[in-house]
Amino acid sequence: MAPYESDDSTTAGEADDLRAGRRKAARYVVPVAVVGVAAATIGLVPALANSGDPDLPKISAQQLIDKIAKSDVQQMSGTVKISTDLGLPNLGGLENSLASGAAGSGDGSSADPSSKLTELATGTHTLRVAADGPDRQKVSLLEHAAEYSLIHNGKDVWGYDSQSNEVYHATSPDSAGAKQKEDVPATPKDLTEEALKSVDDTTSVTVEGTAQVAGRDAYRLVVKPKQSGSTVGQITVAVDSKTGLPLKFTLTPSSGGAAVIDAGFTQVSFARPSASTFDFTVPKGAKVTEDNQAEHRSKAEHGSRTEHGSKGSDKALKPDEGLAKGLDGLNVIGKGWNSIATFDTGGQGMPSGSEAGGGAVGGFLDSLGDKVSGKFGSGTVFKTRLINALMTDDGKVYVGAVNKDALVKAANAG
Length: 414
What we know:
It is a single chain. This protein is α+β, with helices and mostly antiparallel strands. The protein has two domains: 12-35 and 42-310, outer membrane lipoprotein receptor (LolB), chain A, CATH 2.50.20.10; 331-413, no CATH class. It is 22% helix and 32% strand. The chain has helices spanning 12-25, 61-70, 94-104, 113-116, 175-178, 188-196, 294-307, 319-324, 359-368, 404-413; strands at residues 33-34, 39-40, 75-84, 123-132, 136-143, 146-153, 156-161, 166-171, 203-213, 216-225, 232-240, 246-253, 261-269, 287-290, 331-333, 340-344, 369-374, 377-382, 388-392, 396-400.
């Protein structure tokens, strides 16, 4: 089907309008973890599976972005399937050992959402989601014979891992603060809001036909970088024609092939879920870990919001600014989709496989990296299909959704 808007360009006025719509739509921050090796992020899927293109009224890209921004679905439930392929090598079970070690150390709990939901960064997963207004949400991660549930009900956040029979609990005087730890992008809506933060004059935004997702008629919003050098090929979002809710989100890499992640509803209902959906009782014999820092974090965040004024949401941080505030000494160079975050670890570069002691860990490090050199000296580029990172031998890190050449160029200039 021919696109509703086939032009690649976006005028300055349109870019301003797109940014305004993006600010209204964006509420969450994708956590980007740089551990010296690589960074993990969430993007999305191959071609949208559809059963016939529905005949819908024409709509412009700006109108569709506004529709997403104004979407106010308070009650819903459904099933979301997420498949992620960052192109990382097979760790041969090493990742499970590391995860178990992390969970078993200190006061950590396998039910803590900050560690549990990072599993969404690899493989294929099925989620059950439900919401009833801003104070009640539930996400359940179904894995084999086990289930992990994260429930936000008023001032309480409960995490429960049925496999280990462990419970995580946090409370906050501010229900929005209690939900803070739950804000891990896991649905097409979360991911779309993140993607729209990148819409500026370096971006082409068009509406290209229609699709049907989970039995709902939807428009296809396509977001593409105009710049070369980005690892992002395009993002495709299926937007529900009636509610404006993103139903499916697709990120395909510029290198081609399968999408980096496939996240979309396979079933969705906009009826109010039963109140019992959000009830939680600690199972008999379960180990309960209380997050005593949650209230302190909430108060600190509230104080920060107050300090910056009640209209802070109208002055949303750009993605690079938000990341910069999360890492000391971090600078962002470049513009738009070619932005590169750089910081100094204050130490040496990554060890080689032999320096790491060989074995599974050493093999993993060697399989990830490409040795490079330039005016900056020498270093190693660690690759995924989306995020790449260059770590120089003197400990400087350059990371972004850009190719290897762009990282080397940035290191030479730096």
